[in-house]
Amino acid sequence: MADAEENQASLTTNATDKDAAKICVLLNATGNVPIIKKRTWTVDPNKTVSWIQKFIHKYLKLDATEQIFLYVNQTFAPAPDQIIKNLYDCHGTNGKLVLYYCKNQAWG
Amino acid sequence: MAHDREVLRMIWEGQIGICFQADRDEIVGIKPEPFYLMVSRLSYLPLVTDKVRKYFTRYIAAEHQDGAVWFDYNGIPLRLHYPTGVLYDLLHPEEDCTPWGLTIHFSKFPEETLVKMNSKELLESHYMSCLKEADVLKHRGLVISAMQKKDHNQLWLGLINDKFDQFWAVNRRLMEPYGDQESFKNIPVRLYNDDDFTYTQKLISPISESGQKKSLADLMAELSTPERKAVGFRTHGIDLHEETQVQWMSEHLSYPDNFLHLSVDYKDV
C-alpha cells in the first residue's frame, strides 16, 4: 500500500494550476492487462491522456515495447494530447471520469 | 437537417494555398525551389502532402529520407491530427491572401509537443475516435454504433479522396437529430482562445433553459465570466453572426470529425 500512496503523491504533484480542483479518475482494466488494485485516483485537470498512459505503463512495469490504450466509458480513445479536464467536463459521471485501459486496441 | 446544402458544399470546398520550404539543415547540395500546393481546409497535413514529401526527398540527406515528417510555421510545430483549416485560422487571425509559408522537416521530430500521427492508419483511427466522441455527445453514441464498418470506411474514403457526395451520403445520418428529437443532446465543440492549440471542451446544449434554440449570443453569455467576456467567434476563416443558431452551426459548420472548431475572442472586463 505504501507503494500506492507514493504513486498517488506523484499523480498529484507538479500541478500546473494549483488552484484547479483535482479530478477523480476511475481506472478499469480490460482484456489481459494486469489490474491496478487502487482504482480511484485524483489527477490534475491539465494532465494529458498520454501522461496517464505513461503512469499506468510505469506502474505496471510493462516492457518498453508494450503499449497502453485508454478508452473513455468503453466508447472512444481520446487523443494523447487531450487534457483530463475536457474529458471530465464532457464525459464524467457521478463526479468521476471512468477510463478503461488495456494492452490491445479494444473499442478502437 | 441539411437543407442548406450550398453551405455544406462551400465549407467542403474551402482551400488554403501553402508554400512549402525545405529545412536548410537537412539539404544536401543545391537548394530546392519551394513547392506550392492548394490543400483542403477540412483535411489533415499528412493526408495531402505525399507529393510534397516526394519532391523534397531528392534534396534531403539519405539518412533522413525515411524520417517522420512534420511541419512548422515560424518555428511553431503544427499538430498533424488537427484539421489544416483549424491550424491556419489559429495562426492567421487576419486573412492576408498570401500563401502560407511552411517548412517541412524529415528529422528531429518534436516528440514533446507533437503526437506522432504521421501514418494514414494512425490518423484514420484518431478520426474515427473523434466521430465516436462527437456521436456520444450528440446522440449518446447510438447512431455511429448502429452503422456498419463499410459506412465508417465510406466517411474516411470520402474525406481522403475529397468526395463530397460519398462523404455526405453517410455523414447526413450523423448530422440529424436522433429519432423525433429536434436537436442534438449536446453540441460537439472545441473552443480555442489562443494560438497555442489548446482547447476547451464542455457540455453545450443546443437548447436554452427557456426551451429556445440557443444562438451564438447565448453561447457568448454562457462562456463569459466576471473577468472576461466572450465577444466573437470564428471558424473556417469566417466571422460568425451572433444570431446564428448553435444547432444549425453544428449541422453545417462542423469539420468532418463532426466537431465545431471555434476560435473565441475574449475581452477583459
Automatic annotation (TrEMBL), chain A:
GO terms for biological process: autophagosome assembly; autophagosome maturation; autophagy of mitochondrion; glycophagy; piecemeal microautophagy of the nucleus. The keyword Transmembrane does not apply. InterPro entries: Atg12, Ubiquitin-like_domsf. SUPFAM superfamilies: Ubiquitin-like. One of its GO terms (cellular component) is phagophore assembly site membrane. One of its GO terms (molecular function) is Atg8-family ligase activity. Keywords: Autophagy, Isopeptide bond, Ubl conjugation pathway. Forms a conjugate with ATG5. Ubiquitin-like protein involved in autophagic vesicle formation. Belongs to the ATG12 family. This is Ubiquitin-like protein ATG12. It comes from Drosophila pseudoobscura pseudoobscura (Fruit fly).
UniProtKB/TrEMBL annotation, chain B:
Residues 11-106 form the Autophagy protein ATG5 UblA domain. Pfam families: ATG5_HBR (PF20637), ATG5_UblA (PF20638), ATG5_UblB (PF04106). Keywords: Autophagy, Cytoplasm, Isopeptide bond, Membrane, Ubl conjugation. It comes from the Eukaryota. GO terms for biological process: autophagy of mitochondrion; cellular response to nitrogen starvation; glycophagy; larval midgut cell programmed cell death; phagosome-lysosome fusion; piecemeal microautophagy of the nucleus. One of its GO terms (molecular function) is Atg8-family ligase activity. GO terms for cellular component: Atg12-Atg5-Atg16 complex; autophagosome; mitochondria-associated endoplasmic reticulum membrane contact site; phagophore; phagophore assembly site membrane. The keyword Nuclease does not apply. Involved in autophagic vesicle formation. Belongs to the ATG5 family. Conjugated with ATG12. This is Autophagy protein 5. The lineage of its organism: Eukaryota, Metazoa, Ecdysozoa, Arthropoda, Hexapoda. The gene is Dper\Atg5.
